[in-house]
Amino acid sequence: MDNDIVFTYRGRNATRADIAFMTRLIEKNPTASRRALSQMLCREWNWVQANGNLRDMIARGFMLELHRNGHIKLPAKKQNPPNPFLNRKKPERPVIDQTPVATTLKEMGSLDIVLVKNTVHESLFNGLIEHHHYLGYCHPVGEQLKYMVFAGKRPVACFSWSSAPRHIGARDRYIGWKKEHRDRNLFYIAYNSRFLILPWFRVPHLASWLLGYMARNLSRDWESIYRHPVYYLETFVDTELFTGICYKAANWHYLGETTGRGKQDNSNKKNRSIKAVWGYPLTRDFRQLMTRLSNGTVEPDRRRA
To answer: CB neighbours (10 Å) of residue 275?
Structure first.
């Protein structure tokens, strides 16, 4: 049957009809590069982001895995461009004022919270995360936002938000969605991948106040850049190091724990620390919004999921 699923890559299915379509596309464009073919596929399948950009890298990876598994035959590589993510130089340690500050949130006065991705402050953000966050800096993938918090000219805190992990059991049960809902609507979740208050600041309630600010403003900022809102926030807290008290104080919901296994695990045994899963709905009807298969503003093609 043409609609039988014969291959799945990162949650994306390929039917016999899909494979036949890609084979014809390759045959009709014998001189096209792999990149050009992936861009053609994006246009043919309307495989685009909400802001109109082609999902070229996802399509290229999809076609490459089909090629490696013998379902299609891509042309030979025409060139090997340098990979900017390979052997990436670690961010340098910033030289900044580390004078201790112990005060109250009220006495902190006005704080400036600014988006720094693709600005002059981004290298400072990366350096602070690399040298003062216990996980260090990791270049985020997919949709992403970076914020810095300033008191005057002094950096106080950093937030990074990125695309959400696909499979989180506690979150999926909380939302109550099925696989087809998650495949289509995962991009409505923003994942708080890093949260750092610089260690020389001791300000009670600052962390929960900043999380409240993010909850009020993140979806607006996300939509201004990526042309779609987010309806739900999530994060993981390492239970061996932290309690997650600031998320609780900001009215986030504790949903349960991870299994302690990575996404590539084949042993079914714990191989890393357990993470507490915390979530925060941004709208009262988030379940309804995230379990529908179509909507009035952003209509993802099934191959966009």
So the answer is: 21
What residues contact 62, with CB distance under 8 A and at least 6 apart?
9, 10, 12, 14
pLDDT for residue 86: 55
3-state secondary structure 208-274: HHHHHHHHHHHHHHHHHHHCCCCCEEEEEEECCCCCCHHHHHCCCEEEEECCCCCCCCCCCCCCCCC
Per residue in 195-234, is it b (16+ CB within 10 Å) or e — as a string?
Answer: bbbbeebebeebbbbbbebbbeebbebbbeebebbbbbbb
**Pair type for strands 101-102 and 201-202:** parallel
pLDDT of residue 91: 92
Q: What is the mean pLDDT of the chain?
A: 87
Distance separating alpha carbons of residues 146 and 115, to the nearest angstrom: 6
Can you give the pLDDT at residue 304?
31
CA distance 49 to 52: 5
Per the CB < 8 A criterion, the answer to whether 270 and 223 are in contact is: no
State residue 266's pLDDT score.
Answer: 47
Residue 183, classed as helix, strand or coil, is helix
Beta-ladder partners of 202: 102
> pLDDT digit string (tens) for 149-161?
999 999 999 999 9
Q: Which residue ranges of the chain lie beneath pLDDT 50?
A: 264-267, 295-305
Domains of the chain, by residue range, sit at 5-68, 101-304
Token pair in block for residue 126: 């990366």
Compute the C-alpha angle 149/155/156, nearest 5°.
Answer: 65
What's the whole-model pTM score?
A: 0.74
| CATH top class, domain 101-304 | alpha beta
Run of H or E residues at 146: strand 144-151
